[in-house]
Amino acid sequence: MAVRQTELRPLGKSVGRKEDPRFIRGKGRYLDDISLPGMLYMCLVRSPYAHARIKSIDTSAALQAPGVKLVITGEDLAAMNLAWMPTMANDQQMVLATGKVLFQYQEVAAVIAETREQAEDAAQLVYVEYEPLPVVVDPFKALESDAPILREDREQKSNLIFHWEAGDKEATEELFRNAPVVVKQDVRFPRVHPSPLEPCGCIADYNSATGKLTWYVTSQAPHAHRTVLSLVSGLPEHQIRVISPDVGGGFGNKVPVYPGYVCAIVASLKLGKPVKWIETRTENTTSTGFARDYHMTAEIAAEEDGRVLALRVKTIADHGAFDAAADPSKFPAGLFSIVTGSYDFKEAFVEVDGVYTNKAPGGVAYRCSFRVTEAAYLIERVMDVLARRVGVDPAELRRRNFIRKEQFPYKSPTGWTYDSGDYEKTLALALEKIGYEQLRKEQAEKRARGELMGIGISTFTEVVGAGPSHTFDIMGIKMFDSAQIRVHPTGKVIARLGVRHQGQGHETTFAQIIAEELGLSTDDVIVEEGDTDTAPYGLGTYASRSTPTAGGAAALCARRIREKAKKIAAHLLEVGEDDVVFDGVGFSAKGLASRTVTMKDIAFAAYTNVPEGMEPGLEATYYYDPPNLTFPHGAYIAVVDIDKGTGAVKVRRFLAVDDCGTVINPMIVEGQVHGGLTEGFAIAFMQDIPFDEDGNCLATNWMDYLVPTALDTPKWETDRTVTPSPHHPIGAKGVGESPNVGSPAAFVNAVVDALAPLGVEHIDMPIYPWKVWKILREHGVTE
Ligand code: MCN
Ligand code: CUN
């Protein structure tokens, strides 16, 4: 199915992935493949308690252990003013605990030894005396007036982190007062974890002779990490080189800066040797950026026929012990206010309260699009609740309420301007392709026989591509992105971008964009990301922002080169510049197609034969600050059958019709959709990070936190519509997170639809078989 990399005009073709040959042959270069001479290893001592005062730490036995070079505690860091570090959400986080610990598995001390085994063994010898404190696990209880105050470092003496609102409260209330129909639903989006195959880690390598720190790190945002590091440590930014090697999955888990990173750097600065730290699976699952944990209540005011009027949403967001979500600074709840979704609500009012509890920090991760996962799930779930209440088919109810094609650009009641979309067309294609009417007939027949079959629809709107820098920044760093292209004399190209892929295929897709713009083949273009010494400044890869931002930069940067190329072409063709035309493959003299020069001819001339007065060389840099976000959308349909004996849900079919504007590489987009659907499926049916009342984490590894295998995973069907973004240089929107944003609601809607004859209106994720089994038994259903 893939086409060869040597084809010209590659945009929109399924060009085979340039990165695959090295990955398939085991020749990727991940962090743990890097070993430096004299390298030491670090291991962290973690808290067994979720909330406890630290009475004392005794490191003497650990320091005596074989191979041990250094033990660092919070007090040591405090002496360097490094006991706390800023988070990416205007909060601060302990690097190593001082005073007390706030969640189980919190970082308490770091042990550095000659080998990893020695460091692990010595860590067992660090003796910490704790005095347990009352634990707050439930975010609602955390807000009660008698709850213990968790964060003693803050002036504000409550566990409320922030209160955030969007929309018009008064106007919304007014519509609710007079509405013929009001539905209300509590919806929980459980705490889940991105769990990339490769956990987080780094190697800090400080050279005391040059004063330069080279930091290899599994990072989705190397430049942003360098800036944060420079600000925290006081090291000059040009003396820090951040290298993000091949990354074995990120999913948002590798956006934050973690305590282990700072400890490894401190250790390398103190010892003058490279220090490696790589998490175990348990450390990754229990202490790094989790996802979701939103307790949401939605109300819809509507007409009798199901036409929506207003939406009211109240949310309690459990952030754990520190607000370490990597949100844009003006958006403490991310882009959650996109919660009106694909529907033309007249008014909406959204509130989110962020809360501290004794759990690990995080919040924004796992293909989340900055909390759009929560928003899309909520609105798609509640639209089904409304459909049932007013007795309208869920597909028809959606159609009745869609923002219509001619309403774009559409201003939403919470302030977003949707760039483009054609929701009716996308839903119509999905319904036709899955055979919706036929399926409803089959369902009616099965219901008559007492069988449980369900059909679930989700017609979501995504918002990606942060961002316009006037609205979006992280810690004050404006969110735009960049590309730098250098054409060598033989017409071969190296392009460097400010983003950093983790498996998304940028080496192929961005090469396609550049090759298309320059009249070359993908094979002629090498794309390099992840080294701050060479790549132009950028904010990194997350929130499906790479295509909307760096993709735009790549196209515009290539066009900058093409402008110069045109001048050189005119010189070579001996015609005026206005008489030169570019047809995607070569430059020719207008009306004289036989006189053609290619980019290769031009590249050679750029270094050997430029017109008089022209600067030699052929390269350009482009910083692209997009005018708006992009708004991809999709229509997903799930068909499920439920086993009455076991409660097991079988996903019989799943169709995803996505619209991400102009598609660069259909095969890669399909791969992204398959991956995201598989994660959405896992979230709907098997993933949760629960805690007991003492704050003990009950899912600490892949025995308890489930990751679907190929055997569990349904067969995905995909299709697409194309509504280009009017403002993106090639009309492309992001897609990486759409399948995870859109699919959980389709799964849950299908299960609730199957159970609807029993009177079931909602079921919270994850939908374990025992949960369904219990509902069936409660309703007297037997085999
Ligand atoms: N693409 C395309 N045409 C479009 C849109 C995208 O061909 N119209 C291609 C892109 O060029 C890119 C890929 O699809 O090669 C994803 O592009 P985009 O939607 O811009 O997303 P990003 O590259 O910014 O990737 C981030 C996104 C996020 S936020 C998570 S989380 C996630 C995801 O990507 N993590 C992943 N997909 C992942 N896939 C892998 N293998 N590993 C991860 O960690
Ligand atoms: Cu929110 S997970 Mo992705 O943005 O890296």
UniProtKB/TrEMBL annotation:
Keywords: Molybdenum, Oxidoreductase
Main enzyme class: oxidoreductase
UniProt cross-references to Pfam families, sorted A to Z: Ald_Xan_dh_C (PF01315), MoCoBD_1 (PF02738), MoCoBD_2 (PF20256)
One GO molecular-function entry: anaerobic carbon-monoxide dehydrogenase activity
Gene3D superfamilies documented for this protein: Aldehyde oxidase/xanthine dehydrogenase, a/b hammerhead, Aldehyde oxidase/xanthine dehydrogenase, molybdopterin binding domain
Oxidoreductase keyword on record: yes
Matching InterPro entries: Ald_Oxase/Xan_DH_a/b, Ald_Oxase/Xan_DH_a/b_sf, Ald_Oxase/xanthine_DH-like, AldOxase/xan_DH_MoCoBD1, AldOxase/xan_DH_MoCoBD2, AldOxase/xan_DH_Mopterin-bd_sf, CO_Mo_DH_lsu
Record flagged with keyword Oxidoreductase: yes
Region (Disordered): 718-737
UniProt protein name: Carbon-monoxide dehydrogenase large subunit
E.C. number(s) listed in UniProt: 1.2.7.4
Organism: Polycladomyces zharkentensis
Residue ranges of every copy of the Aldehyde oxidase/xanthine dehydrogenase a/b hammerhead domain listed in the record: 25-134
